[in-house]
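Hi P.,

Sorry for the delay on this. The queue was packed all week, but I finally got your sequence through. Input first:
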Amino acid sequence: MWFFILIILLVILTLWVIDGLNKVAILNKEKASLLEKKKRLESEINVLNRRSELFNDPVWLDFYLRKNYSFLHKDEKLIIIKKDGGS
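Then the structure:
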């Protein structure tokens, strides 16, 4: 009788441990995913910061605008046209 109760308790304990290990594995996978997203977002922030710095540089901004846009003055109005593809 005690032997069967002991076996049942061992089975329950084993299932509990397996369930716990599965939960830990899932949490580790989610943590790795979040860390990857964090790295990607930090990289995007760095790119945006660099672009922000470039747009504050008048020489680079002049080059960028002349390369990608055409400017026409007509009837005291400024017409801005985006170039196709840029060269």
